[in-house]
Amino acid sequence: MTVVGMDGDLLADGLKRVQAEVDASFDDLLPVPDDTRARLVEAMRYATIGGGKRVRPLLVVSTAEMYGVSREAAIRVGTAVEAIHVYSLIHDDLPCMDDDELRHGKATVHKVYDEATAVLAGDALHALAFDILADADTSTDPFVRSELIATLGHASGMNGMAGGQMMDMVADEEGVDYDLRAVTRLQQLKTGALLGASVEMGAILGRVPIETRAHLRAYSRDIGLAFQIADDLLDVIGDEAKAGKALRKDEVQGKQTFVTLMGVDKAREQARALVDQAIAHLASHGSEADTLRALARFIVERDR
Amino acid sequence: MTVVGMDGDLLADGLKRVQAEVDASFDDLLPVPDDTRARLVEAMRYATIGGGKRVRPLLVVSTAEMYGVSREAAIRVGTAVEAIHVYSLIHDDLPCMDDDELRHGKATVHKVYDEATAVLAGDALHALAFDILADADTSTDPFVRSELIATLGHASGMNGMAGGQMMDMVADEEGVDYDLRAVTRLQQLKTGALLGASVEMGAILGRVPIETRAHLRAYSRDIGLAFQIADDLLDVIGDEAKAGKALRKDEVQGKQTFVTLMGVDKAREQARALVDQAIAHLASHGSEADTLRALARFIVERDR
Description:
- Chains A, B: InterPro entries: Isoprenoid_synthase_dom_sf (IPR008949), Polyprenyl_synt (IPR000092), Polyprenyl_synt_CS (IPR033749), Prenyl_diphosphate_synthase (IPR053378).
- Chains A, B: This is Farnesyl-diphosphate synthase.
- Chains A, B: Its cofactor is Mg(2+).
- The structure is a homodimer.
- Chain A has one domain (about 5-300): Orthogonal Bundle (Farnesyl Diphosphate Synthase), CATH 1.10.600.
- Chain A has 15 helices and 2 strands.
- Chain A has helices at about 5-30, 40-50, 55-65, 70-90, 110, 115-135, 140-155, 160-175, 180-205, 215-235, 240-245, 250-255, 260, 265-280, 290-300; strands at about 100-105, 105.
- In chain A, α3 runs antiparallel to α4 (about 70-90), α4 (about 70-90) runs antiparallel to α9 and α10 packs antiparallel against α14.
């Protein structure tokens, strides 16, 4: 991916480091057993190791770092969030869902293995996420563990990611035309909830009291929307080779997106305005919030 | 179902009461939203309300009751375990997995709705389980919540239910012939882990120290195996109308089960011996363990 300028360096380094750490973390959590469960764990490893931008783990780590959390704990939590993200991608790619053959430039799990293994690998990663968070290695404070789990459970369920995916599917299948308000709501659930949870979980690890997290939530809300507008833009003007997945799907499906509803120029303008607004929410922080600022900019400038 | 004798009354009443409470609990947790997520939540309600024996919630409640836990907390935990059980049934019934059309005498979720909705409904129930456990309404003690989550996460993931399901699938598809030791291991993961977690979570709610839970674990291990042997027997000699699902599948698939490996008579004998042994593990308890004893007997005597 292309990231330029001082911000770019900071971010490129941050992403690279987190990518290596999250890979190592999955490698450690997923030893291949010496029985017929091997295929399941191999599929889980295939889906989790060496792919993905790791934006969510970097959000966890960057927020946690602002509040002096140990790197190790932050990476564990980032790995849990990424496990949820990857499980959702595996299930979304299934033939009965979006029927995708390519993800992060690799064949999707059900293509390499089979559909049943893909369903189970997603399920097992889903359980793994909560297993990681409930472990005392993540935090010795059970209250922190319990808060982390509540936040992730909420973001991934019917009032979060799964709910947003359902709204999306109904639009595809029943030809429901959402207006801008409905598309915004859908995306807040489908993408925004987990991005928001990433920041929130960094703050929970940092024991930031709930009443002083408002600016972080505002930041998350804005980057969540900007992220999805950027995704919709990429679907229209992006390069498939760089994206590592099929594009132009929205157009083929005649789907309402931020881009169809606002047009390319207006959508790009809106994404940039949201990023400026997100960064403004961090005004009370000094240079310790620079990675979050750089991440916000990256979200609209990325090419995959 | 047929349950006879004094035990039978105790158990029939216990099951009936828990069934009503778990139904009410799901009804409360799953309000249908006024947007296009409605189909998802309706599918979740269809799968969870009014069906199933509720053996797992009764295990939680009966164990918790022995240690003076509030009924409300025990039912919440029982509902969480049942959410995991139901999610696994929805996914197991999918065309790419066991391809079943009937469950608890009703059409399976993917038949009534569609495959994508079934995948998502399972996923959302999976998340709901952890959401319930992480909530302070379940226990005000975050350590208890965290222990409950760790126990359930472990039982449902690759080293529990999902792992067992994978072993089972490999046998079906690759024609691997398991011996008695491998079938035992498979079933301990696929069925035993969640039954064991139910008892364990009742004990966790009751703040039973981990070092004095050995007899409960021994009880769970024995009833878990007995439960699966009974299931294999039902597949051979059961009545489809009573079972509410397709039977004789093991034979058609040429699958190794406790019954094919031991024969009907030996299998029945073994199941009864395991139940006696399970009950013997409860010798240190008085009448407060009567429901657990009755449940153990029910497990081999049930006709569905």
